[in-house]
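Hey everyone, long-time lurker, first post.

I ran two proteins through the pipeline my lab uses and got sequence/structure pairs for each. Pasting them in order. The first:
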Amino acid sequence: MRSSRVVTFALWVGRIALAATLLSAVADRFGLWGPYGSPRASWGDWAHFVAYCGVVNSFAPKAVIPALAWIATVLETVFGVGLLIGYKLEYVAYGSAVLFALFALAMTWSGGIKDPLNYSVFADAGGALLLGALASVTKSEGRSERGSYSVADAGARWAED
């Protein structure tokens, strides 16, 4: 059953990678990757993130941009932590897929198709959707005690079929 171990590992890596993507973006807007203008920071602080949020959501009224920035930040934090710990994985993965897809559509609308392709936002949405689908399959086969779905267990069951 070597393939089940590979699938289990791949699913774990995908979950951690998506969580890192979300949580790294949140960390950046609070300066944890350095101040604005430093080599590792995209925004470096909240003000620059809100300005970027306005660019990405150029179709939205300026008055709602700060609210959109907070909503995105809260959702990215909740989904990132949820993916990291695997809690309610199906719902968290599907929610992440929707968030990534909305972000990709907003980027496309405001800046063209090249921006979301350059930042792999469509790939993130697809990966999150795949993770949610696999968690959904696991749901139909049984729950863990915490009410979460084990990605490792789902991978093992999928590989056996």
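...and the second, right after it:
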Amino acid sequence: MDKRLALTISVLATALVCAAPPAVAATSAEPVTVKREIIPGSELMTSPEREQYRLRLQGAGTPEERERLRAEHVKAMEERARLRGLKVIDYSRGKTAP
């Protein structure tokens, strides 16, 4: 009898979970768009380095500070690439670094 009760409870719980409407993250019907750029030199970076770069850009207070951080990053990646005999392609600017 206990096995039947446990089975019934299990079936009912599963039915409730399956019948529940999916959770909605946003109340708006419009999709949320996230702007992501291709990180210059990302192929020369580790995953933690890419995440740190993203966090630094997100923390930039002004567009000018963001552009300064980006320019510093591009220079660092160009140097890293130069040491490896490679070139960095800056897709967002449409140019190849020397």
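Reply from user beta_strand_b:
Welcome! Quick read of the second one: The mean pLDDT is 78. Strands lie at 89-90, 95-96.
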